Amino acid sequence: MASHPVILGVGGGIAAYKAAELARALMERGCTVQPVMTDAAREFIQPLTFAALTGQKVITGLFGVRTSDEVLASSIDHIRVAQENALLIVAPATADLLAKFASGLAGDFLSTLYLAFEGPVLLCPAMNTAMWNHPATQANVEILRKRGHHILPPDSGPLACGTVGAGRLPDPPRIADFAIRLLTQKHDLDCETILITAGPTRELLDPVRFISNRSSGKMGYAMAEAAATRGARVILVSGPVQLTPPEGVEVVPVQTAVEMRDAVLAHLDAATVIIKTAAVADYYVAAVPTHKVKKTAMRFSLELEPTPDILAEVGRRKKDQLLIGFAAETENVVAEARRKLLAKNCDMVVANNVSADGTGFESDDNEVVLVTRDASPIALPRASKRALADQILDQALQVRLSLHP
Ligand code: CTP
C-alpha cells in the first residue's frame, strides 16, 4: 500500500482523545502519521498514546525549545516537518487554533508549522455549540475556507459540556476517509468555489400540501461530491432530498424556488463556477393560505404564478463566472438545450432525456449531451451519475480554458 505522510495536529479540546482513534484510522488506510500536540492538547491526552499508536516521535512544545520529556526529537523543526508531509490534518481544531490560523499568529509549534506548510489542510473543528456559532469563530472559518482549506464541519449531538448541538468531532473513520480522498484524488479544483443547486423545490399550496417534481437530487449531489473530491470548496443549495450530503460540502437547505433563488444570490459572489442541477418548480402559489384548504363538493382550481428563473437571473448577473445549466427534456434534447443556453446566458448546458429508461430522474445512471456555445455537442454515454459528474467538470474546465486561455 502506498504510504501517505500526514501531520496530525491535535488541539486542546475534549475531543483530543478521538484524535488517537483518528491516528489509528489513518494508519489503517496507509498513512504514516506525524503527531503534533499543542500544550493544551497535552492536558487532555498523553503524547505517549500517539507515540505508541503511530511509532513516531510526537512533537510538542514551542519550536523545539521547550521539549516534551517523553518523546521530542531535538532536531525537529517546523520547516522540515512541513516539507516532508503531504497533508496537514488538525483534529480537534479548537476555536483558539482556528483564530491563530486565520490571523497568522505563530506562537507555538502547530501554528508555526501551519504557516510553513504549503500542501492541503484539513481542519476538523470541535467545540461547544455557542463557541462554534460565535461570529468570531464563524468569521475565522470563512477566512480559512476562502484560503482553500478543507473544513469538515462538526456533527450535532450531545456534547461533553452537557448541551446538545453542533460541535462534535466527526467520527474518526469518516475524517480518515476524507483525508485519503484528498491525498489520492486529482486537485485541479483546489482554487474553485463551486455553487451547486440540487434536488426539487417544493411549492406550498397551503400549510400541509405542496407541489413538487420527481428530482431525487442524485445528479446534483454527485456533482458536489466530485467537485469536493477534486479540491473545490462546494456550496450545495439543496431542495428536500433523501440523500446524505457528501463530506466536506457546505449545505444550504431550502424548500421553495424563492428560497433557492435567495440562497443562490447570497453565495453568488463567492462562486467561481455555478452549476444549476436543481429541478426548480416552474410555478408556485404566490399567496399561500395560512390555514389548510377544506374539501368541498365544488371543483377547485389553483392560480399559479411563474417562479423566478434562477438560472436566467444568474446569467444576467454573472461576471466572469462559469455558468452551467441543466436541461431536462423529453424531446428535441439538443435543440432545447441550445435554446436554454442562449436564453439564460450559460456557458454550458447539460441536457438529459428524462423519458429514457434507466437514466434521468431517481436513477443512479444518466446519459447526457453537453451543449456549449462554440463546440459541437458532446454526448456522454450512459454511466453512473458520479462518473458523469467528473466528465462534466472536465468539460467545464475546457470551456473555461477556451473563454480565458
Ligand atoms: N431553472 C432555474 N429556475 C427555474 C427553472 C429552471 O434556475 N425557475 C434552471 C434549472 O436548474 C436548470 C435549467 O434552468 O438548470 C433548465 O431547467 P428546465 O426545467 O429544463 O427548463 P425550464 O427553463 O424550466 O424550461 P421548461 O420547463 O420549459 O423546459
What value does the Rg take, in angstroms?
24 Å
Uncertain stretches: 69-75
Report the average pLDDT across residues: 91
Classify the beta-strand content into a percent band: 15-25%
- The CATH class designation of the largest domain is Alpha Beta
* Distance between the first and last residues' Cα: 39 Å
Number of separate strands: 19
Which geometry do the CA atoms define? globular
Order of strands, main sheet, comes to: 12-11-8-13-16-17-18-19
Number of helical runs?
14
Helix content: 25-40%
| Helix/strand class | alpha/beta
Number of domains: 2
* Fold-level CATH name of the largest domain: Rossmann fold
CATH architecture of the largest domain: 3-Layer(aba) Sandwich
User: Are any ligands bound, and if so which?
Assistant: cytidine-5'-triphosphate
Strand count, sense and barrel status of the largest sheet are: 8 strands, mixed
Q: Can you identify the CATH superfamily of the largest domain? A: CoaB-like
